[in-house]
Design goal:
heterodimer, A: alpha/beta, Rossmann fold, six-stranded mixed β-sheet, four-stranded antiparallel β-sheet, B: 225 residues, mainly alpha, 8 helices, 0% strand
Chain lengths: 253, 225
């Protein structure tokens, strides 16, 4: 039986970093959504990006995950350039959005089987079983996605995200609308990913949940990282005050 | 093998979704039957021989009915952002296009057979000396149609005009296919030998291959932002 993703640390790699973004910029007409982001993340890094609405956080995630092309700059995952003419780098990335990317009229297992085939995965039956066990949906494999609660749907989406064992996991507001149990499952899976030396980038408005698992923190304002640092350098109790000062422009990096 | 597996995955998923929702096949099937009924009442078969007009009516029904189904190719994809999951997978965009086109082809081919059955029933059509050549003609036409239709359904799904835009985009490009298709179908229904329509069949095959190639080449520019 295949080992669970939650208990299987990724092999330590000599280099390169799992994620690098260089001078990353994205414009939508006159609007600059992402403006000169520089980023380097190694295996086991968990970066949480905070920021007000319209700061460009989701655009940043879309650029890192290959959903959007940058206007300028580049992104590399494990040294491989996100070249849109190629597709191999997509095998390294898992994306979880507030949308589940699941077909409501297919069952949970059918959805995972479909995406597993797109990723060319072997031993799909075992993988699907293990991922569903990881997210606590082992008994819901044959349930249509449209009949799942929001929390269950989000957990099914998490199973889809992790099905191909990605090196880089991108999360866009993953806690939105989750009940405490589903939030607990997500927290457990994310902490296991971090401990398993996967690299995670999470975008959220929730300061407490964002700080909980992160090893690095960034605050994005008007497309730029107005502040970025290590989690251990952040005072958890005073972070909300600090965050407001950064957003209002009172703190320089 | 992975490439073919990815195409198979798309076909399997699209047909399974259609089996569950019956959204498109019901619309196309109902249109085919209604068109047959209306033509049955609107054509005076004492003045016009059904064999002489059936080929045009069959193709007209197929094209309009097909647009009902093909136009909604990306409707279910937009729910819960599912198509983003496909686009961010390693599946090449041309494999996605070919998979969706093949699934549409299966649906439209079923409808094409239904159209022929309905017209045979209402007009008492003799399917000619070579029903297999007739099914080949309709099959090649359906393939070319869905290849163009799938590509332009992707274009129109990203616009505010949506399905309204699709016929405007597709109809002018379908003219050669309809000309050769109607010609071949008419001769076959008139009981002419297959050799007489072989050039039409070759043109239909060339049209289908060209539409598939162009669609596979351009699809990524349509679906990637």
């Amino acid at each position: 039986m295949e080992a669970s993703i939650l208990s299987a640390p990724a092999q330590a790699r000599q280099a390169p970093p799992v994620l690098t973004a260089s001078a990353l910029r994205r414009e939508f007409g006159a609007v600059v959504a992402v403006d000169g982001i520089e980023l380097t993340l190694d295996a086991g890094d968990f970066l949480t990006v905070f920021g007000p609405n319209g700061a460009g956080k989701t655009s940043l995630l879309s650029l890192l995950g290959g959903r959007l092309r940058p206007t300028s700059g580049e992104v590399r995952v494990s040294g491989e350039l996100l070249d849109f003419r190629q597709t191999s780098w997509r095998e390294r990335i898992g994306i979880l959005s507030h949308q589940g990317f699941l077909y409501p009229h297919l069952t949970v297992a059918e959805n995972l089987r479909f995406f597993g085939r797109l990723f060319g995965l072997l031993d799909l039956r075992g993988r699907i079983r293990d991922r569903l066990e990881d997210v606590g949906l082992g008994d819901r494999a044959d349930t249509l996605v449209r009949n799942l609660s929001h929390g269950m749907r989000q957990r099914a989406a998490l199973a889809r995200t992790l099905l191909h064992d990605p090196e880089l996991v991108l999360l866009d507001e993953p806690y939105t609308g989750l009940d405490p149990y589903a939030a607990g499952v997500l927290r457990h899976v994310l902490s296991s990913l971090r401990d398993g030396r996967r690299t995670v980038v999470m975008v959220t408005h929730n300061l407490a949940q964002g700080l909980e698992l992160s090893t690095r923190v960034a605050i994005q304002v008007r497309g730029r990282f107005a502040w970025e640092g290590r989690r251990v350098d952040v005072d958890g109790d005073g972070f909300e005050r600090f965050y407001h000062r950064v957003v209002e422009g009172g703190v320089a990096q | 093998m992975t490439y073919l597996g990815q195409i198979y995955a798309i076909v399997w998923k699209d047909l399974l979704l259609e089996l569950r929702t019956r959204e498109r096949i019901a619309a196309m099937g109902a249109f085919a039957v209604l068109a047959g009924v209306l033509f049955n009442f609107s054509i005076d078969t004492t003045a016009v021989r059904p064999q002489d007009v059936a080929s045009g009516l069959i193709w007209m029904t197929l094209v309009f009915g097909g647009l009902l189904g093909v136009g909604r190719t990306f409707h279910l994809e937009s729910q819960d952002g599912a198509f983003y999951g496909v686009l961010t997978s390693p599946a090449p965009k041309d494999a996605v296009f070919l998979g969706k086109t093949l699934a549409n082809f299966v649906l439209l081919y079923v409808v094409a057979m239904l159209v022929v059955a309905v017209f045979a029933l209402f007009f008492g059509l003799d399917l000619g000396r070579s029903p297999s050549a007739l099914t080949l003609t309709l099959g090649l036409g359906a393939l070319g149609f869905v290849a163009l239709g799938t590509l332009f359904a992707a274009v129109s799904s990203g616009t505010h005009m949506g399905e309204t835009l699709l016929p405007i985009l597709v109809f002018p490009l379908l003219v050669p296919m309809v000309i050769y298709g109607v010609g071949a179908t008419g001769r076959l229904l008139a009981g002419r030998p297959v050799a007489e329509v072989s050039s039409n069949l070759r043109m239909l095959a060339a049209f289908a291959l060209l539409a598939l190639a162009v669609g596979a080449l351009l699809f990524r520019y349509v679906v990637e932002e």
